[in-house]
Amino acid sequence: MFVVMAYDCSDDKRRLKVARIMLDYGYRVQYSVFEADLDDDLLKELIARLEKVINATEDSIRIYHICRRCLDQTQLFGDAELTNQEICFIV
User: Fold this and answer.
1) Residue 17, SS3 per DSSP
2) Could you tell me which CATH class the domain 2-72 is placed in?
3) How many C-beta neighbours within 10 Å does residue 10 have?
4) Dmax of the chain from CA atoms?
5) Per residue in 29-59, pLDDT tens?
6) Residue 18 in contact with residue 59, Cβ under 8 Å?
7) Helices 12-23 and 40-53 meet at what angle, rounded to 10?
């Protein structure tokens, strides 16, 4: 499933940790916004890692699930591009 993830963390240290975790799963498209194509297991893993890092009373994370039909209707302007996440196998 294609997801768009965004964060808002008040603490610099937590913000950096959240960004690094999101980079493990997707691509940064704006400073605090990421895109990723994840299966259910990877999404659960991502969420579990994020929940260990954030302060639930000060920080917020949003994960929007984008269906394929909606993804096809996405409008991009300027130099914006949807991330191309090809699956690679290294043998």
Assistant:
1) helix
2) alpha beta
3) 11
4) 44
5) 999 999 999 999 999 999 999 999 999 999 9
6) yes
7) 170
Q: What counts of helices (H) and strands (E) characterise the chain?
A: 3, 4
| Whole-structure pTM value | 0.81
On the 0-12 / 13-18 / 19+ scale of CB atoms within 10 A, 5 is buried
Amino acid at residue number 38:
L
Over residues 59-81, the pLDDT tens digits come to 999 999 998 888 777 777 777 67
Model confidence band, residue 89 (pLDDT cutoffs 50, 70, 90): very low
Domain boundaries, the chain: 2-72
SS3 58: coil
